[in-house]
């Protein structure tokens, strides 16, 4: 535009017309050159009669600040008017107005937006990966607690849950392991108590059975109902002790098989 303004100040109109035609052929942007009275010196693709062109030329001829351009969006393909004054010996003697094609600027803006979108997607993907890693780190002790609870529910004396993750979960996991240890110890003591009590009661019961059997021949006819009732109760007690022993052995064997 500055070069065309210099040409408009120093060459004849036919030569200026050739320059403007060449400019239009190369860039595809309309150009019009006018003198101080608004007469057209040369033109191609634009006309001085256009109100926008006349307004831009008038601003340039008085050396006024041109109005700001409208915002350029990536999807727009339009032309905006740019004007500059023609000076000869320091005096404004006309103006040159050109319709600037904003396609290249719109493409550059689109490319910039694409880079911004790609950067946002990359940051989003990175955030997802970081969040996934943090989530796994946080939920890993929860999974361990779930397995430990399932093992405790099935009566398996499994290993304690791993104390990992955030401090809050570590405290909770430590408390759970302590509770699980207490529960398992209590259940083990209960099994041992049942087994020991069953074993310990068998000897006195056998002694009572032996003495009851020795009394069978000496019991009178009137005492036979009481004797038969006593032996029936002894039979029921022996059966109960046998069931307790089988239960203790079965629980011990089942727990051993589950633990492996």
Which helices and strands appear, and what pairs or packs with what?
Layout lengths: L1 H9 L2 H15 L3 E5 L4 E5 L6 H11 L17 E10 L2 E11 L1 H51 L13 H48 L9 H36 L1
Helix pairs in contact: 4-5, 5-6
Question: Which key features would you list for this structure?
Answer:
260 residues, alpha+beta, 6 helices, rod-shaped
What would a concise description of this structure say?
The protein has 260 residues and is α+β, with helices and mostly antiparallel strands. The protein has 6 helices and 4 strands.
Overview of the molecule:
The protein is an alpha+beta fold and 260 residues long. It is built from six helices and four strands, in the order ααββαββααα. It has a four-stranded antiparallel beta sheet with strand order 2-1-4-3, with helices on both faces. Strand 1 (31-35) and strand 2 (40-44) form a beta hairpin. The longest helix is centred in the middle third of the chain and has 51 residues, at 103-153. The mean pLDDT is 83.
Q: How many helix segments?
A: 6
* Estimated helix fraction: 55-70%
Order of helices and strands: HHEEHEEHHH
The outline comes out as: rod-shaped
Q: What distance lies between the first and last C-alpha atoms, to the nearest angstrom?
A: 90 Å
Strand numbers in spatial order across the main sheet: 2-1-4-3
User: Which stretches are low in confidence, meaning pLDDT under 50 for 5 or more residues running?
Assistant: none
As a percent range, the share of strand residues is 5-15%
Q: pLDDT average, as an integer?
A: 83
> Could you give a short account of the major beta sheet?
4 strands, antiparallel
Class inferred from helices and paired strands: alpha+beta
Radius of gyration based on Cα positions: 52 Å
Q: How many E-type strands?
A: 4
